[in-house]
Amino acid sequence: MDLVIKELNKSFNNKHVLKGINLTINSGQIFGYLGRNGAGKTTSMRILMDVFEGDSGSILMDGKEFKPTDHRIGYLPEERGMYSKFKVKDQLVYFAELRGASKKEAQHSMKKWAEEFGIAIYLDQKLETLSKGNQQKVQIAQAFICEPDILILDEPFSGLDPVNSKIFQDSLLNYIREDRIIIFSSHQMGYIESFCDDIAIINDGKIVLDGDLNDIRKQMGEGKLRLRVADQRNLDFLAAYDYTIEKEDIILTLHPNETKRSFIEGVFSQGIELTMFMDYLPSLQEIFIEKTGDQNEKA
């Protein structure tokens, strides 16, 4: 399955929210979708679900017009939208039936995912009586119910402790199949780096970066080195270079046309002892900050 978004535009009250975005999302993996608050992530995801209609552009599934009604779409929104006064089991069955399940199918799927996420003991309780973490697990179970072929997760780790985060990670990885598309959005960059092969960063309604994460890291680290010296008190040998210091590590940019070999030979000729030397691969957080200009965004 290949989901292709072409030149998608959307405005609200004369504010241009999506500005001709282009994306290709492949099944069989987890696609990381990143952006600052208000960048357009949620709007684009809701257009996929037919909550909003794009002003122009197209969405294709395997080369044909994408019709949300032809697919089961599971969605975990960042803002929580379940009913606090109703029993957990009744809500899960309700959401399953909204996705076209029969009563019997809904009951079966409800029990399966309640067991998967450890909420079976809470099925007869009202949602408001549960802890924040258990409420989040109910929300997650709702997204998975009826085995959607398109699963959209927006900040799914919010409110989960380390144990439940691990349970969710395992469930998510086990859910990957060639006939399923998973879109994962989070400000916790470590999870994106762990799960996702392909990513896209949206900023001010435009896709500013997309592709294979490993390839992006190599490309953006090209011409840079990470090194460590035995004595960091004397860094005069780096005076002609552009560099930054991260704790004990030095991130250095080579001169144009300079090779790693020539740099090392020059360092050794000055009697400098290196204790670590490697190609620099920027973290996803560093990439995100460079592409969005947000120095305050936290991983």
UniProtKB/TrEMBL annotation:
Name the UniProt key words of this record, in alphabetical order: ATP-binding, Nucleotide-binding, Transport
Q: What is this protein called?
A: ABC transporter ATP-binding protein
In Pfam terms, one family for this protein is DrrA1-3_C
Record family assignment: Belongs to the ABC transporter superfamily.
Kindly give the InterPro entries that the UniProt entry links to this protein: AAA+_ATPase, ABC_transporter-like_ATP-bd, ABC_transporter-like_CS, ABC_transporter_ATP-binding, DrrA1/2-like_C, P-loop_NTPase
Name the domain of life this protein comes from: Bacteria
Q: Which organism is it from?
A: Planococcus antarcticus DSM 14505
**GO molecular function list:** ATP binding; ATP hydrolysis activity
Alphabetized Gene3D superfamilies for the sequence: P-loop containing nucleotide triphosphate hydrolases
Show where the ABC transporter domain sits.
Answer: 3-229
